[in-house]
Amino acid sequence: MELSLFSMLPFAFLFILFSISLTIFFNQKATSNLPPGKTGLPFLGESLEFLTDGWKGQSGKFIHDRMAKFSPQAFKTSLFGAPTVVMCGAQGNKFLFSNENKLVTAWWPSSINKIFPSSNQTSSNDEMKKMRKLLPQFLRAEALHRYIGIMDTIAQRHFDSDWKNTDNNNHNHDVSLVTVFPLSKLYTFWLACRLFISVEDPEHVAKFSKPFELVASGMFSIPIDLPGTAFNKGIKAANLIRKELREIIKQRKIDLAENKASPTQDILSHMLLTPDEDGKYMQEMDIADKILGLLVGGHDTASATVTFIIKYLAELPHVYDLVLKEQMEIAKPKAPGELLNWEDLQKMKYSWNVACEVMRLVPPLQGAFREAITDFMYAGYSVPKGWKLYWSAHSTHQNPEYFPEPEKFDPSRFEGTGPVPYTYVPFGGGPRMCPGKEYARLEILVFMHNLVKRFRWEKVLPCEKIVVNPMPVPEKGLPIRLFPHNPSQSS
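User: That's the sequence. What structure does it adopt?
Assistant: Structure tokens below.
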């Protein structure tokens, strides 16, 4: 935690007028049909408990406790300064995903709008709609086919250059000690930089990546802009990244004018050259904001997923052996230097089932917010217009009704038709399902292929805690010992 509860309370009183107005709002909207629950402290609501459960390594506890205490279908709370109804289970997911722009619309905490201030010129919703129109051109099947070779090249460079021994006291040069999470972030960030803005120099990427962790943490923090808070650090880091991006944008404009850059080489060129419906081109700051958002979204969740794949493969040797067998069958027929292709990735069925089971147990996207755009009823409860709605992956992923023995690691859950609809939601669902889902699948599978071809490994800390801030991460970054395969095994 950036600040203790007691150090934050005096600042909370600065918002006393806001809390009074919030209380009035609650009273005006209160009816006997609201879902059961509690709204916690003025202004803060239950945000601290919501966040600290994750920081303590008890991800999902906030949701499960209230489902058990109040209702397994829906409960009320207050999160990030807003009255909120948490909708639970497959029916809750189905209701929210099916009623996008009918009864509900997307909503983000004010912390996100303040970290991405240029989006306030319109609204976060409008900005996201614009991005969803831009992205399909870069995430369509033909483009994804082309990205696989680039991903494989970068993965090979990444393992050759970065997965080296970091233990100066280790005299066994055949065994390396590395910390996984920072390395997985470097891989996914390197890919995002290469494919979104054509930056791939390792030193440039490394310099660029350091502030991104602060931005991600600040996005879902209590919006108190005081020195030392996660929110304040997130704002400063975002400003620093924007400055770097604007330099890249200015140079790209020059390169495009001099035909030194291609109009179709990445999403940055497309943003610079494509006008909106009114014939207007995006301002540099708007482009910087959008690229910033893409870079955060394009690497954070995937880096968490590959980290936990490594964790579970270390704990489950029989699963590792099956992944290795599948990947070596793909690698053996390939000529020296031949890169992975689309057909190769379609053969990685068991490996992807393993990745899906990892995302069930440790969902990279914990949940997301919506806002009620009209009064409506759900499960016998009334939800007033203006209230926020929240869906949580924990309400289904760990539910034995949908996943028998939910604590058991079982990739076979994803064979055939897979889980019941609306129960497995690591990428969200409905019209707002993550548009980068297939991109994420490719970068995860390319990573797994290059990893298991090179190494076996073991965890250094057998019982390392998983914390959420705001993505799930191993508390110490998942240090492991790497054991390279014999050359004959990995050729």
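Confidence is low (pLDDT under 50) at residues 1-21.
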